[in-house]
Amino acid sequence: MSRELFIGLMSGTSLDGADSVVVELDGHHCQVLHQQFTPYPPELRQQLLALHTSSANELEITALTGNTLSRLYAENVQLLLSTANLEPINITAIGCHGQTIRHRPELGFTLQIFNPALLTELTGITVVADFRSRDLAAGGHGAPLVPAFHQALFADAYIHRVLLNIGGIANLTDLAIDGPVTGFDTGPGNMLMDAWIEQHQGKPYDAHGSWAASGQVIPALLEHMLAEPFFTQPAPKSTGRDTFNTTWLAALLHQDYQAVDVQRTLLELTAQSIATAVTQNCSNVDELYVCGGGAYNSVLLQRLQQLLQPVTINLSDELGLAVNSVEAAAFAWLARQAMHGLPGNLPAVTGAKGPRILGAVYAA
Fold it and tell me: Which CATH number fits domain 4-142+325-362: 3.30.420.40, 3.90.1150.10, 3.90.550.10, 3.30.190.20?
């Protein structure tokens, strides 16, 4: 297969900004040529957070925020192309996830906002968007979608690998040697930890997990959090801010809890929910690779290593994709699948009735 250049654009549940990569793809090989990160301005981040709950005039606010996002995405793409010394004509398409503001597969819908037509006009590049709705229409959760990309790039006939993405929400892909590829969301990744440290220290995230490391786990709080029904639901399953949010957390807190101990307990929640998911669903793992922002939380990775012994935890860099490039590269790959009329979902992962071509194409 001939190799083509695609751009992948991803902004996840952490709401920190937009990651993009320009990649060379042929279906089973992916080479990241350049990457770009554009942080969200504080006012945009607050607007996106507010859109996770109903409010007055929210339809107009959603549309306007989608346009704002599209302009930020376009600026990101222009910086990416400039750095890579490429022109729009060199790029086959942009695969853009958009920003999730609602994810309710149990009600049959998910909503990722931006204006793909505007992004096409601003960049002069074909845009592939709306990847999740077709899978939902086919009875699936519309998520996670990245496992299909993991399978295409990282599956090995002799090595049982697990790919763990720790973004705002954590999800895993089980690339078993025998049997179908499986994957699902495990629960909170960085999202609650980020929200808690921002509330109490004004920082966007707990660098390396250092604040959490200075606290102690609150056993009663951890027990109450792990009692959330999501954790015992069978796969396929997916989740987001609709379930795990600051309101959910506040209902479980006691006034005597110290803020730093809550942070440590949130880290323990992420670690234990991931470790339980791996232990119960991915037997006889040979290699486990971590990607996403959580890969930079050394305290979290150390705790995961303790819980998952003797499995060794590695970073996705060792497979040729940097931890902060994997998800954006996945949406570049999904765009290529759509442009070639190939399925982008894994029914065993999402629960859809069968393979489906994902995404709507906005031709330049």
Answer: 3.30.420.40
